[in-house]
From TrEMBL:
<dbReference type="InterPro" id="IPR002146">
    <property type="entry name" value="ATP_synth_b/b'su_bac/chlpt"/>
</dbReference>
<dbReference type="Pfam" id="PF00430">
    <property type="entry name" value="ATP-synt_B"/>
</dbReference>
<keyword id="KW-0150">Chloroplast</keyword>
<dbReference type="GO" id="GO:0046933">
    <property type="term" value="F:proton-transporting ATP synthase activity, rotational mechanism"/>
</dbReference>
<keyword id="KW-0812">Transmembrane</keyword>
<keyword id="KW-0175">Coiled coil</keyword>
<keyword id="KW-0066">ATP synthesis</keyword>
<dbReference type="GO" id="GO:0045259">
    <property type="term" value="C:proton-transporting ATP synthase complex"/>
</dbReference>
<comment type="function">
    <text>F(1)F(0) ATP synthase produces ATP from ADP in the presence of a proton or sodium gradient. F-type ATPases consist of two structural domains, F(1) containing the extramembraneous catalytic core and F(0) containing the membrane proton channel, linked together by a central stalk and a peripheral stalk. During catalysis, ATP synthesis in the catalytic domain of F(1) is coupled via a rotary mechanism of the central stalk subunits to proton translocation.</text>
</comment>
<keyword id="KW-0793">Thylakoid</keyword>
<dbReference type="GO" id="GO:0009535">
    <property type="term" value="C:chloroplast thylakoid membrane"/>
</dbReference>
<comment type="subunit">
    <text>F-type ATPases have 2 components, F(1) - the catalytic core - and F(0) - the membrane proton channel. F(1) has five subunits: alpha(3), beta(3), gamma(1), delta(1), epsilon(1). F(0) has four main subunits: a(1), b(1), b'(1) and c(10-14). The alpha and beta chains form an alternating ring which encloses part of the gamma chain. F(1) is attached to F(0) by a central stalk formed by the gamma and epsilon chains, while a peripheral stalk is formed by the delta, b and b' chains.</text>
</comment>
<comment type="similarity">
    <text>Belongs to the ATPase B chain family.</text>
</comment>
<keyword id="KW-0138">CF(0)</keyword>
<keyword id="KW-0472">Membrane</keyword>
<protein>
    <recommendedName>
        <fullName>ATP synthase subunit b, chloroplastic</fullName>
    </recommendedName>
</protein>
<keyword id="KW-0375">Hydrogen ion transport</keyword>
Amino acid sequence: MKNLTDSFVSVEHWSSAGSFEFNTDILATNPINLSVVLGVLIFFGKGVLNDLLDKRKQRILSTIRNSEELRRGAIEQLERARVRLRKVEIEADEYRTNGYSEIEREKLNLINATCNSLERLENYKNETLFFEKQRAINQVRQQVLQQALQKALGTLNSCLTSELHFRTISANIDILESVEEITD
């Protein structure tokens, strides 16, 4: 150890002020480098480390406070739930002591209302079926009439020549004129 400290302090080892040399003795330079690095880290890192620790402490404290608030809220909810449970148990006891006559009455009312609803739905269904049937019949009538008219027009167009067509139009005009004279 004496040799090690001598290499740090020894004036012989350090040359005069005019020249600069590197110390290649690893055992002598590593402790110096480590002590310098540790000194810098402690000097500059102390504030950062303190800030980090303070922030961590604040987060832990706020988490503890939040946990306490949540615990208090959970206790309050538990008490409210217990009160509601007691009320429900009392109501259940009242239902048992008073009997199930109210339930039976409600059940009968519900059955009657359901039957009435089913009857109305059946009537609506029958009316809808009737209207749909009438609509389908009307559609078929319209399609048959349209097809008959198209077939008649096709037959007329294939049978009529220009001269026959002209005579038919003239005859219809004469009929319309005579009807007009009668109505005047």
